[in-house]
Design goal:
The structure is a homotrimer.
Chain A: E1 4-12, E2 17-20, H1 22-31, E3 37-43, E4 48-53, H2 57-71, H3 79-84, H4 89-98, E5 101-107, E6 110-111, E7 118-123, E8 129-139
Antiparallel strand pairs in A: 1-8, 2-7, 3-5, 3-8, 4-7, 5-6
C-alpha cells in the first residue's frame, strides 16, 4: 500500500510558543496525489506537542499558557534540571501531557476541521528551535 | 488504497457531558467491508475531545468533571471570554488538553478494547451541541 | 490493503510505572515486511496511557509522577472508589488525560523519533499488571 511521507519544518520562539500548522498541512495536501484519507502527524522531540485549538490571541497568547503554568510551573522544582543542569523540566512535562501525535482526516484534498479549529504545534522548550513534524498520508 | 470515511453524529448536553461512542463505532464497523484495521476518529470543533474511560457513573458524572474543574475552572478568568464576550474559555483549554483524535484497532469487525474501557466524546462547550466525529477505516 | 497487527506485552509495577517501549516497537518493525509507514499503538485497559518522554530517571521516577499527583492525587476523593470499593480513581483520571493511542511514523524499518524522545507506557493502576499494546502497521 502506498504511503506518502512529508516533512513540515517550522521555526519557533520556544517558551510555549503556539504555531498554527493548518496552512502547512494544506500545502502538503496540495503536493499530494491523494485526495481522501488520514494524515498522521508526529512532532520530533520531547519538548513539543500537537493538538487543536481556536487560534485567536486570547487563548493562544494567554489562556493556554496560564493553564500550562499552573499544571507544570516554569520555576517549579524538577529533578530533571538538578540532574542535567538544565532549565526545561516543565517543558518535558507539558509535552508529555499533550502528546506528540495527531491524526487528521482529509477529503477532496482538504483537512476536515471545525470553522474555529486549527492544528497547532506547541513548543514548550526554553529557547528558539527549528521543529520537524512528520506527516504521513494514507488514502486514495 | 481504499479508505472508508464515515460520520458519527451525536447530540450532547454540553458542560463536560461524556458520551459513550463505543456502540456507535461498532455500528460503523458493521456497515464496513473491512474486518481488520485501524479506525482514525476525529471530533470536529475546538471545544470537545476524544479519549477512553471506564464508563461508570462515578467517573463520568463526578470524578472526571472534578479534575477538569481543577485544571481549568469554569469561573476562571480567560482572555478568550474578555475578547469575544463568550463564556467558554475553560471549554477550549480542556478540549486542547484531551485532544480531538484517537486511533482504535479492530479485528473481526470489532474494536479491540479492555473490558472496562469505552471510547468517549467529552463535550466541554457551555451549551447543547450536535457533534460530528469523522471515522476513517484503513485495513482489509 | 494489507495491515499488520502485532502485540506487545509488558509486565508493569503499576503506581505510575513508566516503561520505555521503543525497543519493543523496533522488535515489531524487525519482524515486519513493511519498511515505511505509520504505527498505530493502542494500550488495552482504562488505567494506562501512551505518550513520549525523554527517558531519564529524573523525569521518569520523579517529575512526571509529581505532576500526576498534583493533577489527580492518589489519596483524593473519588466517587469511583466509593461506588466500587476500589482504590484506583486517580489511575482512571490520569489515564483518560494521557489517552490510550499514539501514532508513530517509521522509515527504513526504524521509528522516527528525536534523540531524547522515547515511546512510553504509563501504568497508573495500583497493582502489578500485564499490559497489552496493540501495534498496527500500515505502509509499504
Amino acid at each position: 500500500m502506498p504511503i506518502e511521507t512529508h516533512d513540515i519544518k517550522v521555526d519557533t520562539k520556544g517558551n510555549t510558543d503556539i504555531l498554527d500548522l493548518t496552512p502547512r498541512l494544506i500545502e502538503v495536501l496540495n503536493l499530494s496525489e491523494l485526495s481522501t484519507g488520514l494524515a498522521g502527524m508526529f512532532v520530533i522531540g520531547s519538548t513539543a506537542g500537537l493538538t487543536t485549538v481556536e487560534y485567536e490571541p486570547g487563548l493562544v497568547n494567554h489562556d493556554l499558557r496560564a493553564c500550562f503554568e499552573k499544571i507544570a510551573p516554569e520555576d517549579g522544582e524538577y529533578q530533571h534540571e538538578a540532574t542535567w543542569h538544565d532549565d526545561n523540566g516543565h517543558s518535558h512535562i507539558r509535552a508529555s501531557l499533550i502528546g506528540p501525535s495527531l491524526t487528521v482526516p482529509f477529503t477532496n484534498g482538504q483537512p476536515i476541521l471545525g470553522t474555529w479549529q486549527q492544528i497547532v504545534l506547541i513548543d514548550f522548550d526554553t529557547r528558539q528551535r527549528q521543529r520537524r513534524v512528520v506527516v504521513q498520508l494514507v488514502g486514495e
